[in-house]
Amino acid sequence: MTISRRNLFKAGIAGGAAFSIPSILRAQAAATEARTVRMSIGLPTIFDPVVTTSQTTTDHAAAIYDTLFALDSKFMPQPQMVGKWGVSDNKKIYTFELRDGLGWHDGSPVTAADCVASIRRWAQIRPEGQFMMTRVQDISKKDDKTFAIALKEPLGLLPTFLANLLYVMREKDADKPATEAVTTNIGSGPFKFNEAAARPGASLTYDRNDKYLPRQEPVDGLAGGKIVKVDRVIWENIGDAQTAIAALQAGEIDFYITPPADLFPVIEADPNLELQVLYKYGQDFFARINCLQKPFDSVKARQAMLHLVDQEAFLQVLSSDPKYTNTVTSFFGSGNPVSNDENTGWFKKGADPEKAKLLFKEAGYAGEKVVILQPTDWADGSNTSQLLADALRKIGINSELAPSDWAGVSARRENKRPVEDGGWSIFITSDTDFARGEAMTTSHLAMNGEKAWYGWPQSDEYEALRAKWPDVETVDERKALARKMQAIAWDYVPEVLLGQFTAPIARRKTLIGLIGMPDIVPMWNMEKA
User: Fold this and answer.
1) What value does the mean pLDDT take over residues 87-112?
2) Bond from prior residue into 295 cis (ω within 30 degrees of 0)
3) Distance CA 473, CA 146 (A)
4) Max Cα–Cα distance, the chain, nearest Å
């Protein structure tokens, strides 16, 4: 066969194209990876932010849903989904108009009816929502983009309430009972949940919502324009801390939310990694107590826990570097305007285990098992749980650890039954120091019994004072109110403080633009340099 010049030329082009295809694919893959962020952040098992306040669920909700208002960097509420709003002269009727361009991930428009249903469902669970409803006369749709909240008496904190973990869902989802989890994961936020890419227990994937229309204002805390600068975010479930750090070093992940303190030197020694404090107010660690079941249905047993805990010992477990830790004795945290020293005589350096032992005896402790829920995939929670169990054993208390991942802790803490029936006695968690100063918007600061957060404390006297919180006008008046509330809280003891830890996250230096706000890790604004 004779090969013509034309055929030889055509063959050469085809051969060159064939050799170039892998290079093109590699370039495309590299470009995709450059706009993909991988985070070890923990995976939620419940995706509904009304049913649970778990941080992983809140992070998920912040990605796929949007909010009516959002807190800026000074913790002032700013409109987010709301375009225009106003209040009547008598301060009893608030009217809200949605901004243009809001749409659900399924292609349908966001309406005022969606907002009304979402507010009503959220208000059944959130403490500020429950209080708000005591003053609400009606929440009604005016037209497709406008709704109103009519009050029986003024409530100046209403926009602040609406800015706190109120994620707007479709009306057909928000019509579900507040105790029944929404599972559709269809929001109107800057990211879409990629159902097809989800690997339960292993990873979750979020894709940029190309149709999301951000606000025009610059980003400011959780407020302003939610501009997404990456195409995809993947959450990887890496339960072992050393494995997570190794993945961070290798560039297999870009972000690790809970590096244990003993690995800080490893991170600081790597020129490609950096520790960063996102929550400048710090995290206050506390042991939440089940007030319904023995032995902690006795106030004496709960008071014993105040004297048992040696905060400095717990802080050593959290971090050997004192620059990241601090003791805290106020029920309202250490960095808030309402922090105070009322009824804190129980605090003693090194604690007072003998006093704790005596109080357990006065409580009539008879060897009942104390079950501490131990989150094995959260190093700080796991280590502090072990320390607390050991401290209880040393004074003769029959303590036992119940190890599971955080998802297991979240599920079991809902059980109000005795430990023999799958219940619990104590679990350890943390909240931002900022949140501890917000008596109306922080779930675990309520003591309204069956409606309260896990542990279900009940004090009518405390709740009567808390009901006055929204109407106090000056800082001095609020401080005085906080002192009265704290006096009751440390007599009742719904929880015990373990100390304050300003926990840094670990990231590769190429991941920039992280927003530092309490309780939420926003995925907008970040990018890979």
Assistant:
1) 97
2) yes
3) 30
4) 106
State the amino acid at position 529 in one-letter form.
A
Cα Rg of the chain (Å, integer): 26
CA–CA separation, 293 and 45 (whole Å) = 26
- The H-or-E segment that residue 399 falls in is strand 399-404
Residue 505 has pLDDT above 90, yes or no: yes
pLDDT surpasses 50 at 12: no
> What would the pLDDT profile of 264-295 be if each residue is shown by its tens digit?
999 999 999 999 998 777 889 999 999 999 99
Residue 117 near residue 103, CB atoms below 8 Å: no
Q: Which amino acid is at 92?
A: K
CA pair distance 410, 388, nearest whole angstrom: 19
- Helix then strand count (H, E) for the chain reads 16, 23
Find residue 426's DSSP bridge partners. 289, 372
- Residue 167 confidence (pLDDT) above 70: yes
Q: What is the DSSP string of 62-117?
A: HHH-EESEEE-TTS-EEESSEEEEEE-TTS-EEEEEEPTT-B-TTSPBP-HHHHHH
C-alpha 1: how far from chain center: 74
Under a CB-based contact definition with an 8 Å cutoff, are residues 205 and 64 in contact? no
Characterize the bridge pairing of strands 77-79 and 82-87: unpaired
Give mean pLDDT, residues 319-328: 87
Predicted pLDDT of residue 273? 98
The pTM of this model reads 0.76
Angle, to 10 degrees, between the axis of helix 112-123 and the axis of helix 127-135?
Answer: 110
Lay out the sheet containing 203-208: strands in order across: 191-193, 203-208, 232-236, 36-40, 255-256, 505-508, 273-276
For residue 4, give both structure tokens: 């013509």
d(C-alpha 315, C-alpha 34), whole Å: 38
The residues, any chain, with a CB within 8 Å of residue 472's CB and separated by 6 or more, are 478, 481
Q: What percent of the chain has pLDDT over 90?
A: 81
Sign of CA dihedral 237, 243, 244, 250: negative
Which secondary-structure segment (H or E) carries 283?
strand 283-289
Runs of H (alpha helix) within 413-512: 433-436, 460-466, 475-492
- Looking up tokens 């050799």 gives 19
State the DSSP H helix or E strand holding residue 442, giving kind and residue range, or none if neither.
none
Between the alpha carbon of residue 79 and those of residues 144, 191, 408, 442, the distances in Å are 18, 19, 36, 21
Could you write out the DSSP letters of every residue in 150-189?
A: EESS--TTHHHHHTSS-EE--HHHHTS-TTS-------SS
pLDDT at 11: 37
pLDDT at 10: 35
Cα(7)–Cα(76) distance, rounded to whole angstroms? 72
Contact at 8 Å (CB) between 429 and 286?
A: yes
10 Å CB burial of residue 9 (0-12, 13-18, 19+) is exposed
Rounded to whole angstroms, how far apart are CA atoms 233 and 221? 20
Number of other residues whose CB lies within 10 A of the CB of residue 110: 23
Place 344 in a pLDDT band, splitting at 50, 70 and 90: very high
